[in-house]
Amino acid sequence: MGTTGRRKLRFREAIERAPQYTDAFLNLGRLYQENAGKDADAVRKAVAVYEKVLEYQPDHSEARYQDAVLLRLIGEFGRSLEQSRALPPADRDRASALAVRCADHAGGAKRAETDRAAEKLLARRDLAEADVLPILPTPGGARPGDLAVSTAGGAARARLASAEGRRRVGLLLRRPRGEPTGARSCAR
Hints:
By secondary structure, this protein is mostly helical. Helices cover 68% and strands 0% of the residues.
C-alpha cells in the first residue's frame, strides 16, 4: 500500500472512531481530489465525503464550496448551484465561488446568468487567475467561446493572463462557436 493508500486508511479509521471528526473528512476529501487523475471515481468519492460533513454540519462553508466545485466538474450544474447559493453571503461572493457559479450557468446553457456572474466575477478586486482558469472551458451545451471572450477580456484588463492562461483562452477562441468542450479539460 502506497503513501496515499495509508493516508486514506488513517482518515477512514479516524472517522470510524469519531464519526463527526470534520478535519478527517476534509482531509479525506482533499486526498480524493488530489488523486482524481489516478482514480476515476475519486471526484464522486470526494462529493460523498463533503456531503457527509454537510449532513451533520450544514453550515460548513468549505465542505459546501468543495461540494459545489466537484459537482460542477461532473456536470451536475443544478446541484452545484444549490450548494453555491447555500453558502453564507460573504463566502458566496468570493471570486472563487463566483467563478464556480459562472461555470455552472455556462454549463447549463444559461447565457444571461452566465454573463451576470462573469461580470460580477470580473469586478472583484481579489480576482486571481487561479479563479478564472478552472472555468475555462466549461463542459455542457453552453457556448464556451462566449464565456472565454468575456472572461479573457476581463482577465486581460486585469492583467491576470499568464502564458498558460493565454494558451487555454486561445484554444477556446479558435473553437467554432457553440462547440461544446470536454469535461476532461475542465478538470485542470
